[in-house]
Amino acid sequence: MLGVIVSGRLAQTDFQRVEESKFLINIPDADNINHIVVFLTGAVPLPPGMAGAVYFSWPDPNAPPNWQYLGYISNNKASAIFKISQLKKLHEMDAIDNQMSIFGQQPISHIAQIGVSIESEASVIQLTPAASTTNYLQFAQKMLENFFNFSSSFAVTQAQMVPNPSETFVPLSTLQTWFTNFQRRLEQNPNVWKLL
Ligand SMILES: *[C@@H]1O[C@H](CO)[C@@H](O)[C@H](O)[C@H]1NC(C)=O
């Protein structure tokens, strides 16, 4: 029913059914892949009103699967091309931040996985693809950093201060604490801003 194509390779259709409506396929040697096409073979159409939500993961022996939503296919949109290079980079950055610095070099998987979950089209169209989360996360981190850089460029010690009774001052250390805390929360959960 489902297939994937990596440019230059044979099409793969060896999806395994892992649950009633969930399918998995391994993509070997995935390190240098930038795009993946996922398609319906046409052998069996999806049931009416259903769509296939497509997810990407780098299996990590030391962590639960981290499924990133890419987008969907349906009978009306029987194939789609997804960019995965950015997702891989983000995953590696996470691995470096979270583990490598603490436990030394960890083996990085070379096999990626694509998961397809057959769900109602109405629920699938509400999902947000990971690529937009990635951009959002990068934007938020850059903005944090830029704000911190900008405000700390005005830092003066108390000794250097020219008295100005009408100006209000904030200790730079409080900004530093906020910056560190917010960045940590954002790394743990890119959707943290929804909870504020
Ligand atoms: C913040 O400052 C550091 C050190 O000067 C610099 O490397 C970095 O690019 C700056 N970041 C932004 C977003 O302006």
What ions, cofactors and ligands are bound? 2-acetamido-2-deoxy-beta-D-glucopyranose
Helicity range: 25-40%
Shape: elongated
Mean pLDDT equals 84
Task: Report how far apart the termini are.
Answer: 43 Å
Largest β sheet strand count, sense and barrel closure = 5 strands, antiparallel
Oligomer description: single chain
Number of domain units:
2
> In sequence order, what are the helices and strands, one letter per element?
EEEEEEEHEHHH
**Count of DSSP helices?**
4
The amount of beta strand, in percent, is 25-35%
Order the strands across the largest sheet as they lie in space.
2-3-8-5-6
> What structural class results from the helix and strand content?
alpha+beta
Radius of gyration: 22 Å
Instruction: Count the beta strands.
Output: 8
Model description:
This protein has 196 residues and is of the alpha+beta class. The protein folds into 2 domains: 2-127, no CATH class; 131-195. The chain has 4 helices and 8 strands, in the order E-E-E-E-E-E-E-H-E-H-H-H. The strands form 2 sheets. The protein has a 5-stranded antiparallel β-sheet with strand order 2-3-8-5-6. The protein has a 3-stranded antiparallel β-sheet with strand order 1-4-7. The chain is elongated and about 80 Å long. The chain binds 2-acetamido-2-deoxy-beta-D-glucopyranose. 2-acetamido-2-deoxy-beta-D-glucopyranose binds at residues 142, 145-146, 149.
Structure keywords:
single chain, 196 residues, alpha+beta, 5-stranded antiparallel beta sheet, 3-stranded antiparallel beta sheet, 4 helices, binds 2-acetamido-2-deoxy-beta-D-glucopyranose
